[in-house]
Amino acid sequence: MSKEAPNDVAALAGAATAASVSVFISSGAFGILGIGIGLTLITLVLSYASSSAKNPKHQIAFSVVMGQLIILILAPMFELFIFWNQHRDLYMPFLWYLNQMDVLTYTEVTSSTLFIAWLIASISTYLYIHSKYKKK
Asked: Residue 63: which of 2, 120, 133 has the closest Cα?
């Protein structure tokens, strides 16, 4: 993306946000595929949009989008941890737990947990990106 096309960066951020919201509004538990979707979207946003976050407004926007993408990765991990904690059996292999996540009908991950994770991820991203451009 060229420097002359700030709309491309905004469109990418909008598309990433729309994709992550579509994962969150689906019914059922968070699946492992969400991690792959999150990593893909983070790679795209980092590749194309991170260099455009030079002023504080863009840094805030970049940070909240990244926070949302990070919770795409964290939500299935939280789901797996909660499921494993509720059904702990020393004789069951880890892959059994992963397979069972695909058939869960509802999520155990609360929206308040995801909000706190989003807040921490957004603030951490902002502090990192702000310090990165402050040094220049």
From this structure: 120
